[in-house]
Amino acid sequence: MPVWNGEKFLAESVDSILTQTFTDFELLVIDDGSTDRTMEILRTYSDSRLRVLRLNHGGIVVALNHGLSQARGEWIARLDSDDLCLPRRLELQWRALNRHPQAVLCHTAVTCFGETNWPVGQARLPRSRSFTALRLCYQCPIVHSSVLFKKSVALAAGGYLLEERHAEDYSLWGRMLEHGEFIGLTERLVQLRLHIQSVSRQNLETQLTLTRQIGIRHCQKFLRLNEADASRANALLMEIPRARSWRDWWWFLYYCVPRLRWKSVELYAWLGLQTLKMLR
User: pTM of the predicted model, to two decimals?
Assistant: First the structure.
């Protein structure tokens, strides 16, 4: 849990972890040079599972990578310092990973709440490797605060990249997907807090630019396209179905989809649904 001047919601977030039904973990809080009451709040806890590391302010990517390097466990669960976990979050994710030993990451559906009317869509949660890859070609379908992933795989994939701050998780998921399966749980096990002061809201324009660039790179990698075709595919997928031209959609179905590195029933069902929406 990285935190920077997070006194307003920090205690709620920490409490939601320390009261988990699954108890065999350490909670590593990385204080990124806070100047508010963050450290004072953290000192009120006597739970031996809580470890606090303090850094000079260097930004979230520096804090995240420091947390990865210092974590004692082989599996990393993430939570932002303003979000909340439901009590069985870690228990259910750990069970899912034990049922799928080939998986390197588990994520969950989320519930959004907060003090702003900032619209957030609840898109379909990808369950298969192929559909996850396709979604990564135009958006980030995995909520950062919901993940439980294998530390060694994240490090092998290069960790979080400083030059992709504000979209650092989106890039990492694309690199980790090459190492193994992802599991998506439809249970809403994390509550994502929306508020005006959130990092995502304050850096929305930068985040959207990076998302576009990373999405094009994922199109190149997962659909095995050149840069021009990848840019075309990314733009097409970002459009709502009724705004797509049939010419572009048929090009995507017959030229791009066969190139996708993995296939699944879920993938073809989504493509069929998109086609039906265009017909309507």
Answer: 0.92
